[in-house]
Amino acid sequence: MYIEVVANIGEARSDDFLHKTVIVVDVIRATSTIITALINGCKAIIPVETVLKAKELYREGDLLGGERFCKKIPGFDLGNSPLEFTKEVVQGKRVILTTTNGTRGIQKAMKADHVLAGALLNSKACAEAAIALKRDTVILCAGTQDVFSLEDGLCAGLILEELVSALGEKHVVTNDFGLAMRGCYLHAKNTLYETLLTCTNGKKMCKSGFQADVVSCTKTNITDQVPILEQDQMVLLQLSQGRRAF
Amino acid sequence: MYIEVVANIGEARSDDFLHKTVIVVDVIRATSTIITALINGCKAIIPVETVLKAKELYREGDLLGGERFCKKIPGFDLGNSPLEFTKEVVQGKRVILTTTNGTRGIQKAMKADHVLAGALLNSKACAEAAIALKRDTVILCAGTQDVFSLEDGLCAGLILEELVSALGEKHVVTNDFGLAMRGCYLHAKNTLYETLLTCTNGKKMCKSGFQADVVSCTKTNITDQVPILEQDQMVLLQLSQGRRAF
């Protein structure tokens, strides 16, 4: 199985995703939030690039979620903290979400056969889904404003490590950036939280009062669920759906 | 001290190098070759981007060196293997060198105050030189055709590690990519040669019969010499020169 790891959205070319599975990773915080919302019973997440588009798609009963510069968008129901997307708030609702990087990454990946949302929370499940979907796979680290973010690279490294655990070393081939991210993850795996506090987004989160979000986003493999894009909305991947894709 | 690590030449913007020290790293093989040539008594290396430019600058007594697609350029005296640049061949001579990535990286860095050539061979010396030259520093991983190469990232990680050893953890600040490369180096440091054999250029070298070059380029901190660009040629940095730059 060939897995390419891409360092940030700016380096991604949509046409390279044709016929592939793309796992979009934005650990702090978009994909961690999407996963949390869906496992808490949210009906679907609609990722959009702009505030205007979010407002256009809004229908009564929906929730508007998103951030710009780490802050909730004025007039929106929710920001981009996974801790806001509780069962009480999101169960049975559709959430229209716009964030600076993660939702842009999902939009960029639209040409792929399958678009999944990955984070540390569901890395093992992402590896299993990628295997089940039987495509060459790209891990697209969202990064921040077209610059690499360490937490996304660590997650890519963990997904690679889970793929190697599942398939064996010989059956997982990756690019040099993937090799680097796997090494980087293996070095940091016992100190993930401390490592996330040293990186740009971790420091920014703490400064903005979101340290609890970093704690939440650092949890590893706490769910076996994987969000997948169906038409224009993210829902939980069903195993039968994976089977259909063979 | 702030150290930015840039993943490949395509990501580098010349204007970002103003007033800085740039350490260009192309472990396999251009900067390893430049270091080897200069410590073997080569008078100067003139890095140029094209074969035409190399031939234009040639004067009697010079040597022409370089590669395209790992192979020696027809009519040139030398390829791009550090093992060719022995004392017997290069002592007292000027070498005009053109390679696919490394010399391009040096050209790209021209706007910097100081341009150094770094590799695993002289990583500690590069860290010491960067400290002595007292500038914000960029480690420019040359990569291969605008794609990240693992061996350059490992070298960036080692240079960072040497900076931390010299200055202390608190006095070395790097970007997220630098943090990742440092982690990646620390994971691989006891198996550098084996790791280099798994990456794209390592595999390409072995396939082309240059495995001995990989062995040679993997040697760590075997010299305290650092090539520096003076006008349009690389020579060994003299300590007094470092002092002049303060």
UniProtKB/TrEMBL annotation, chains A, B:
E.C. number(s) listed in UniProt: 3.1.3.71
GO terms, molecular function: 2-phosphosulfolactate phosphatase activity
Cofactor(s) required, per the database record: Mg(2+)
Pfam families noted in UniProt: 2-ph_phosp
Broadest EC class assigned to this enzyme: hydrolase
Superkingdom assignment: Bacteria
Keyword field contains Hydrolase: yes
Catalyses which reaction(s): (2R)-O-phospho-3-sulfolactate + H2O = (2R)-3-sulfolactate + phosphate
InterPro entries according to UniProt: ComB-like (IPR005238), ComB-like_sf (IPR036702)
Annotated SUPFAM superfamilies: ComB-like
Keyword line: Hydrolase, Magnesium
Family in the record: Belongs to the ComB family.
Record PANTHER family: 2-PHOSPHOSULFOLACTATE PHOSPHATASE-RELATED (PTHR37311:SF1)
Protein name: Probable 2-phosphosulfolactate phosphatase
Species whose genome carries this gene: Paenibacillus aceris
High-level lineage: Bacteria, Bacillati, Bacillota, Bacilli, Bacillales
Gene coding for it: comB
